[in-house]
Amino acid sequence: MNRLYHMPLSPFCRKVRLVLAEKRIEVELVEERYWERDADFMRRNPAGKVPVLRMDGRTMAESQAICEFLDEVYPEPKLLPGGPVERCEARRLVCWFDDKFHHEVTSKLLYERVNKKVTKSGYPDSRNVKAGAAAIKFHIDYMGWLLDQRRWLAGDVMTLADFAAAAHLSCLDYISDVDWNRNAAVKDWYAKIKSRPAFRNILADQVPGFPPPRHYANLDF
Amino acid sequence: MNRLYHMPLSPFCRKVRLVLAEKRIEVELVEERYWERDADFMRRNPAGKVPVLRMDGRTMAESQAICEFLDEVYPEPKLLPGGPVERCEARRLVCWFDDKFHHEVTSKLLYERVNKKVTKSGYPDSRNVKAGAAAIKFHIDYMGWLLDQRRWLAGDVMTLADFAAAAHLSCLDYISDVDWNRNAAVKDWYAKIKSRPAFRNILADQVPGFPPPRHYANLDF
What we know:
The structure is a homodimer of 221-residue chains.
Chain A lengths: L2 E4 L4 H12 L5 E4 L7 H6 L7 E4 L2 E4 L1 H11 L10 H35 L7 H24 L10 H15 L9 H11 L5 H4 L18
Parallel strand pairs in A: 1-2
Antiparallel strand pairs in A: 1-3, 3-4
Helix pairs in contact in A: 1-3, 1-6, 4-5, 4-6, 5-7
């Protein structure tokens, strides 16, 4: 059985889970408290991070490397489609969310509010929370600007860029940190991706001590 | 003419420069003081970062998206070769250096010592410098462990992983922050990659106010 070592509110793990589900690859989910640096886990991934995917006797780490692997080996449906230019744009946006959005928003809101408590590593820094709450507005506006010109974030077909963005936003939505009324195009886009069967598993996540708001799993939010 | 907006001591720009040179793609280098957020530059890349590549009328951003594009369109020589498993390992290590190594080492040494001065954004924080100097030892040991089993970092052929690693290490070597005596296999690997024609341009870099040490450009270091 394939096995994904993950944490429910990790956007990087959610991106991989969405790709696995979209491609109908069955996988057993194993929660890995990576910050405890268990020796077996550190052997699997010396970077000490989730996600880690065990598949056919192989161990793979780093969400982007895993997603590229899955898209090459399980091409149905292709999530990096089109020509090299279109793939470049999709990969640019994956980096946008996994690097810039992660740094400016996810790490400032989710990590302060949730991860610090779960990993017992301190209390939320209100300056970070404030900075994250300001930055997410710019990012939603940028997504809206893209979606005014395109059906999906990277072009006219759904790509890994949409999954990367949805992975981050769904984690933040779990703690009610997304203002869906800010931009109608972004809300429509999220409604579309949220209603995919691949998203069901993510909408069922429950983190002890952090109950999700009622709208989190609601397709009509 | 192709044009790369870059900064000389950016490891992400150096990775792209190495790929361009290895594939013999001519490009005009334009230094971009990205932190000044010039309006034209922000239009080219709203993320406000270098590298940005202008090629055939197109603008591309994010170093990994650019490198994947170049490897797809200019396949000689392939820098993500082999099967999906080998490519996954090469991409894992690119992420290792561009994410983990960057966070634990490059940002703690280079950014404290050089970028803060160049961008006039403060003075080096000695705690960061100390943490970076400790962390680079672990990373060199990990590279040595990989190179005990493989000719190149990701396997038996040179890949983008070697360029990502060499891009970071060459920036740190410019400020004498690499102890080449720590691991013989790592030193041999760097000597091999440093002697490639693609590296010449990088060894000629000069940053005003930061003269490189004599060994920096020396192939027998």
